[in-house]
TrEMBL record:
N6-(pyridoxal phosphate)lysine carried by residues: K36
Family matches, as PROSITE patterns: ALANINE_RACEMASE (PS00395)
EC number(s) stated in the UniProt entry for this protein: 5.1.1.1
Protein name: Alanine racemase
Pathway: Amino-acid biosynthesis; D-alanine biosynthesis; D-alanine from L-alanine: step 1/1
Binding site for substrate: R130, M308
Domain of life (superkingdom): Bacteria
Length: 371
């Protein structure tokens, strides 16, 4: 007998491949599949491999450590990382053939100091006020980059930026940032990067003019909607299903309080079920009394607070067998809630739901080339 699955994340790599292909076809320009933060909770190495199989030209991650882990797992294609701190091991990234991102003259200096010929992309801050060179710093960054190309320190392979409000297509920041990006490109006319890129998932889908030479697709690759209410139906398939075994059921009486603080009190006699997952596994406590799960063909409301290891659902008088499947979220095609439903219940975005779920859950891959 196979041991029961206590709590598991199932990742459909066919869904990833389908989404990567659909997005690549939609834009008609090369794609970068973004797999930072362990592939938004789906598994960085497995997602990167599936994305390459589906024709994604580039893979993107945040840190050098993530990039090195991909190389160690056998990834050999174009790979960009973009978030460093002083003291990071630029040399290791360069030796591994990773494109690194420089935000400043100081970072270019640290790259030159490795004595290795690097592939460097430059990031300009066009209005997110996060990473990247400001408009004031940009001419100096470009001048240092040109000098380094002439003295053989590096090849500048990309110039890029990131949008603040791509999920709100009518937000004025989109036009303003794209204009700032155009100005930055003009000021960098002495460089001839392979790729200029600005768009993430929402912009890649909703703002064709922002696609340039490459779109950095994160969330949409996982089949989730980067701009709920704005995105047309592209037939993307959510790749993650989170499910668990029902631990027990019990009858409770009208007037009985449920979970810490008794934030929910039964108004009639009912039955409740115990789900062995809590905020220690990334189930958001903010979803207390708000999210639903699928048990025995019906959506059941969470009752009371999410605890560290467990939460309680209202079974409305039903007594499914302990061990029955409890689906927290999935693609939604069997009546289960979606990650987007959980995001709305918890007052967050689906990015956070899938990226944080995990903890003690095991992960299993399905799809034709799952290994
Ligand atoms: C995370 C990230 C992306 C991907 O964003 P999505 O909205 O998930 O598509 C793209 N670019 C940068 C710089 C990022 O940090």
């Amino acid at each position: 007998m196979t041991p029961a699955v206590r709590a598991e994340i199932v990742v459909d790599l066919d869904a990833i491949r389908h989404n990567v292909r659909a997005l690549r076809e939609l834009t008609g320009v090369p794609s970068m599949t973004v797999v930072k933060a362990d592939g938004y909770g789906h598994g960085m190495v497995e997602v990167a491999r599936a994305a390459r199989e589906a024709g994604s030209e580039w893979i993107g991650v945040a840190t050098i450590d993530e990039a090195l882990a991909l190389r160690a797992a056998g990834d050999t294609g174009p790979l960009l990382c973009w978030l460093t701190v002083p003291g990071d091991d630029w040399a290791a990234a360069i030796d591994a053939g990773v494109d690194v991102t420089a935000y400043s003259v100081a970072e270019l200096g640290a790259i030159a100091a490795t004595g290795r010929r690097a592939r460097v992309q430059l990031k300009v801050d066009t209005g997110l006020s996060r990473g990247g060179a400001t408009a004031q710093e940009w001419p100096d960054v470009v001048a240092r980059a040109v000098q380094g190309e002439r003295d053989g320190s590096w090849t500048i392979t990309g110039i890029w930026s990131h949008l603040a409000a791509s999920d709100e297509p009518a937000h004025p920041a989109n036009d303003a940032q794209q204009e700032a990006f155009e100005r930055a490109l003009e000021q960098a006319a002495d460089l001839s990067p392979e790729v200029r890129h600005l768009a993430n998932s929402a912009a890649g889908i909703l703002r064709p003019s922002s696609r340039y030479d490459l779109v950095r697709f994160g969330l949409a690759s996982y089949g989730l909607d980067p701009a709920p209410g704005e995105t047309p139906d592209l037939g993307l398939v959510p790749a993650m299903t989170a499910h668990a075994s029902l631990a027990l059921t019990k009858p409770i009486h009208a007037g009985d309080g449920v979970s810490y603080g008794h934030t929910w009190v039964a108004d009639t006699d009912t039955t409740v079920g115990l789900v062995p997952l809590g905020y220690g596994d990334g189930v958001p406590r903010h979803a207390s009394n708000a999210a639903h799960v699928l048990v025995d063909g019906k959506q059941r409301a969470m009752r009371g607070r999410v605890c560290m290891d467990q939460f309680v659902v209202d079974l409305g008088g039903d007594r499914p067998e302990p061990g029955s499947d409890v689906v927290l979220f999935g693609p939604g095609d069997h009546g289960e809630p979606t990650a987007q439903d959980w995001a709305e219940a918890a007052g967050t975005i689906s990015y956070e739901i899938v990226t944080r779920i995990g903890g003690r859950m095991t992960r299993r891959y399905v799809g034709t080339s799952a290994r």
